[in-house]
Amino acid sequence: MNILYDVSRKIFFHREESLTAVPFARDSFLLSSKGTEDAYTFNIQSDEKRLSVPLIGIVASKVQNKYKGNFELFRSIQEDIGEQGGMCFVFSPDDAAGDTIHGIIFNEHVKKWVKCDFPIPNVIYNRIPSWAAEQNIEYTQFKQFIKTHHIPYFNPHFFNKWEVHQILSQCSELKDYLPSTALVEDEAGFTNFLERHKKIYVKPSFASQGRGIRLIEMEANGTIICKSIKKIEKFTSLSRFLYSYQEWFHGDQNLIMQKAIPCKTLNDHRYDFRILVLHSGEDFKLMGVGVRISHRQEVTTHVPAGGKIISLKEVATAQTKKEILPIVKSCGRELERAFGYIGEFSVDLAPREEGGFVLFEVNSKPMTFDEEDIEMKRRWQLVRTFLTLSQQQKKVDRL
């Protein structure tokens, strides 16, 4: 089926002689029209059983009138949704107003992203790339827009590590997996935490990919070793360390500290599991488990910080995924109870030396996985979940 967009009248329409009005998006219709020469054409797979064309919106950032985000992912989703009889477009929070959203969509005929005006979508997928971009007035107004139109919103916001820890620590099924964690507030609290645990991590609550992380160790003689992904610092006393990092204890730094748990290693390098979880529209599903191992430094296993990718078979057994599944499902249920619908997230989990696992953190809006099989499963499931949510919302609207 061909769906056309009249550039001058700013409307979508079709030219199928056998059809009249086709339900489109949340509460719009595609009308039959002979149209105009000044129109973009979009090809979607028609399905005689499907009586409507779902529309999925991907919200990203826009800086100086240029959209920012993972356009490889966006275009892949658009292609997959088109093969399932739907359409998909990209927009920013300040593009939404009234009953219309200004946005862009890739057009295969002209081989570029083109501007169109879209009706209210069935589902919105949050891929705003930074926590800071979710803090402005435009995003606040956009959230009200979503509420006003009752649009299913796939991923409400970036996670705050401290807030997530508090939520998960209330769950009896998860609390034993969590390392001792506290906010960095003042020198006294930090000193007490370090003296009690001897080896701790300090992390920004909103950072990802190992940015800003420190591994701090208090040796028996009082020497403090502070490691980042770029350097190692040595302080002869705690007071000297506190003086050098006094900015941590002034103002709203949003830092947390966690006990460093001894974890299993491979060839003397620690490794952990990066676990991708998606919601199917009915329940949380484990999409795949990647493994990252430290290499150039031992602070973090993130690849941009020098970590390496290894096969799951090198460090796991056939039982590993079965042991991980109930943990990540519990994470999803607890987060959904606290934040609303959670479409996808990733979990950083590592096997302890003494057995069992330690759950380091849960991240919203996972980055692209390097493992192609995991990424393919992810994109397949994303599209199925979007369409499932669209169908569920249609049923709700008819009640």
Automatic annotation (TrEMBL):
Keyword Secreted listed: no
Pfam hit, one: ATPgrasp_YheCD
Keyword terms of this UniProt record: ATP-binding, Nucleotide-binding
ATP-grasp domain ranges (all copies): 168-391
Domain of life: Bacteria
Protein name, per record: YheC/YheD family protein
Source species of the chain: Rossellomorea oryzaecorticis
Lineage, broadest ranks: Bacteria, Bacillati, Bacillota, Bacilli, Bacillales
